[in-house]
Amino acid sequence: MKEVIVHPERCVGCMQCMPACAVAHSGSGRLVSAVLELPQPRPRVHVGVGLYDEGFPNRCRHCDPAPCRLACLPGAIYRDPKTNTVLIDPERCINCASCAMACPFGVIRYHEERSAPRGKTVAVKCDNCIGRQIQGLIPACVEACKVGALTFEERDRALKRRTNEVSRRISFSGEEPRIPGAEGFSLLHTLKRTQKEMNELRS
Amino acid sequence: MRHVIIGNGTAGIHAAETIRSLDSEASITIIAGETFPPYCRPMISLFLEGVVSRNQLRIRPPDYYDSLRITPLSGEWVRNIDVKLRRVLTDRGREVPFDRLLIASGADPRSIRAQGSHLKNVSFLRSESHVRDMMDALPYVKRVLVLGGGLVGFKAAYGFLRRKIPVTMLIRSSYPLSMQVDPFAGELLRRELQNNGLDVRVGVEAVAFEGGDRVREVHLSDGSSLKCDLVVIGKGVTPAVSFVPADRIQMDLGILVNQRMETTEPGIYAAGDVAEHFDVARNTRWVNALWPVAVEQGRIAGANMAGRTVNYAGSLSRNVIRVFGLDVLTGGLVNPPREDGYEEIASYDAYRRRYRRLVFRDDVPVGLVMVNYIEQGGVFLSLLQQQRPVGGVRNRLLHPSFNVSQLLH
User: Fold this and answer.
1) What is the CATH number of domain B2-108+238-305?
2) Out of A74, A97, A102, closest to residue B292 by CB
3) What architecture (CATH level 2) is domain B122-233?
4) Mind giving me the DSSP string for B291-331?
5) Looking at residue A41, what DSSP letter applies?
6) Is B336-407 in the same CATH topology as B2-108+238-305?
7) CB hemisphere CA count around B357 (13 angstroms)
8) Interface contact B387, partner A, CB < 8 A
9) What is residue B3's predicted lDDT score, i.e. its pLDDT?
10) A49-101: per-residue pLDDT in tens?
11) Is ipTM beyond 0.95?
């Protein structure tokens, strides 16, 4: 079963996943009209700033067991076993924020939503683009990401790829050891980190 | 294997579900004093407020017991546990034998010492039946008196204020929720409530209630009197252990349990509001009578009862409450003792009414208070639960941009 896998070392902080996510959950499906919709669609993936100003696409991990589901007072959070998606029922949600206390990743937000009753603030989080998947599409954040920081694949495949990267790095084939993983990205992050440290030294 | 569970609260039902998921053959009996099917106790204040219906309190489907092959004994109270003969005795004279017993009887409201506290409409706020009685009285209630500024009193006051009924609250500390918040946040809360019509009186107690067919007036410890039609007593809860044999099952405030939620009597477990385990922030034995704590304890007790050894590291107190224009999220040890080793950092943005405070014991965060912008609360509570040293990241924790990626190395 395919899942959205995050490769944080590749994130350049462009934040394109965020409007793509919001538009995918809009009524019109287009950015120009989505911004005018009421309530305005909001993203469920949140690019957070790291310690060195690098980006990090923070999205729901659809944990199993899901702390939010266990914490939810009215039992509004449930799992779709087919796609392993943890979902929130906006009808049952009482906006108590117990899920905010439970989520160790801080990915749940509270606002009005087109799938919720009019005027009702509810808990909102990533739904694995379950609506798009039913139509044979991939999650919007993955489609938007140009650098491969978000992929949609079998977990084992992604892990195997990482295992291979690590093995190549330490192999004794006599060749020069490869810089692991994301070549260009390591350079970018090193630059950012250095810049940050220089700024701190100056101040 | 015969599992018997005392109480159909959230600890009891989560234990039952965990046992059933691990053992499809075992017999499970739940003995419940309340007749209403499993429901969400924290939501009764929303029922009082008028935001949810009685039916919306229910947290399991109508065929719950049948679908899990649980035998429910409803409206029945346990009178005694015969540890030697391994059976419980109920108030209907029934003897229920067990191989594994879970005591998940919860906690009962603490009563007060005041004359006339037996009068009609002087009530606790613990069960949905209390709320139903209050709602019957609503048509003629002109003023409510709330005793206590803790979570129950606070939520009761909020519910009535939202219904546009005047409320007077008597609190011991100078601000409400003194067990959950620090003085700064407490002051923000008090002002918010007062700005929305709450009459708060500090350091005053109720001495006597007066009335004939129902409560009409209260006499206070400062000599004054107040007309009131309904009184809510929110003076805390105490574990319900009247039926527990103290000579066999060791108790302090609650029933003492080990890492596997087992009591001093092998095969007998306790979970939820009745159990006393270890508080990871306070670093001592403690009863955290909270919904999510009861859930996790119920699951762990159930696993151990079904033969799978699972250890519980300890509980963390935590609360979140939305009150008019303020959202308050708290956890752990918020008001540390005046000892070495404790440090605090805080930031306040008056324009946004955004407050964040963290208490550290050495390098480990042990207490959290957040006012507004509470979405990252779980990230902090996770640090508290893990008792994880934060090192240099401490400087980032108060900043609005703090997020989980700053904890990844």
Assistant:
1) 3.50.50.60
2) A102
3) 3-Layer(bba) Sandwich (3.50)
4) HHHHHHHHHHHHHHHTT-------B--EEEEEETTEEEEEE
5) P
6) no
7) 24
8) no
9) 98
10) 999 889 999 999 999 999 999 999 999 999 999 999 999 999 999 999 999 99
11) no
| Nearest C-alpha in A relative to B381 | A101
Interface test with B, best of A12, A52, A73 (most B CBs within 10 A): A73
| Residue A73 touches partner B, C-beta closer than 8 Å | yes
Token digits of residue B28: 């499970």
Contacts with A73 from chain B: Cβ below 8 Å: 40, 42-43, 59, 291
The answer to whether residue A19 neighbours chain B at the CB level (below 8 Å) is no
Nearest partner of B332 among B280, B290, B292, B287, judged by Cα: B280
A184 touches chain B (CB under 8 A): no
Instruction: Write the DSSP assignment of A82-124 as a string of letters.
Output: TTTEEEE-TTT-----HHHHH-TT---EEE--TTSPTT--EEE
Question: Measured between alpha carbons, how far is B189 from B176 in angstroms, rounded to an integer?
Answer: 7
pLDDT for the residue A185:
75
CA torsion B268-B272-B275-B278 (nearest 10°) is: 120
Q: Judge: B378–A96 Cβ closer than 8 Å, yes or no.
A: no
- Set out the domains of chain A in order of their start, with CATH numbers: 1-59+128-203 (3.30.70), 60-125 (3.30.70.20)
Token digits of residue B33: 């004093």
- State the alpha helices, DSSP H only, in B38-118: 44-49, 64-67
A201: left (phi over 0), alpha (psi -120 to 50) or beta: alpha
Per-residue pLDDT of A27-62, as tens digits, reads 999 999 999 999 999 999 999 999 988 999 999 999
Q: Measured between alpha carbons, how far is B111 from A173 in angstroms, rounded to an integer?
A: 78
B271 interfaces chain A, CB cutoff of 8 Å: no
Q: Residue A102 and residue B374: Cβ atoms within 8 Å?
A: no
| B318 touching A (Cβ < 8 Å) | yes
In chain B, where the domains are located? 2-108+238-305, 122-233, 336-407
Query: A95 in contact with B at a CB cutoff of 8 Å?
Result: yes
CA distances from A147 to A142, A150, B263 (A): 10, 8, 55
| Bond into B38 cis (ω within 30) | no
The two three-digit tokens of residue B256, written as one number: 């003492």
Determine the CATH number of domain B336-407: 3.30.390
Q: Which residue has the tokens 């949609």?
A: A152
Q: DSSP 3-state helix, strand, coil percentages of chain B (rounded to 5)? A: 25, 30, 45
Closest by Cα among B267, B16, B54, B350 to B7? B16
AA letter at B92: R
| Gap between the terminal Cα atoms of chain B | 47
Q: What φ, ψ does residue B395 adopt, rounded to 5°?
A: -65, -20
